[in-house]
Design goal:
Elements: E1 5-15, E2 19-20, E3 23-24, H1 25-35, E4 42-45, E5 69-76, H2 78-91, E6 96-104, H3 119-122, H4 127-130
Antiparallel strand pairs: 1-5, 1-6, 2-3, 4-5
Length: 138
Amino acid sequence: MLSKGPAKKVTIFINEETQHHMAALGDSIMTYLMHKGVSGATATRAYSGFGSHRMLHTPRVEALAQHLPIRIEFVETEEKVDEVLPTLYEMVSDGLIEVQDTTVVKLARKAAKPEAKTPLQRRQVPAKLLACTWERPT
């Protein structure tokens, strides 16, 4: 579990049209990371970019609009990165994976919202009924 202190930041650069087992590679990576218990990940679609193929991808050129870069980032413990990296290495057939040392200085989590009550749970129950006890049939 990720905590304050030393960590690893992984950045993956791919193109949005890249496929992995008949699905978008970006979606496959995000699903994989979620199922492996990574604390969180973000996929960002770039406005424009180019890579090793030396072709500028931009939404202004309609033929290249579907080839925009995607950057996937996550911060995790060194152990978790070591666990997921071999599969990510195999998944990324065209792109770049970068790993850097980083430091988590704050990890804040909002308290979970209470579950919405059903209409029956919202109903006011008279105090005399609350004092009664009953046994559930078995």
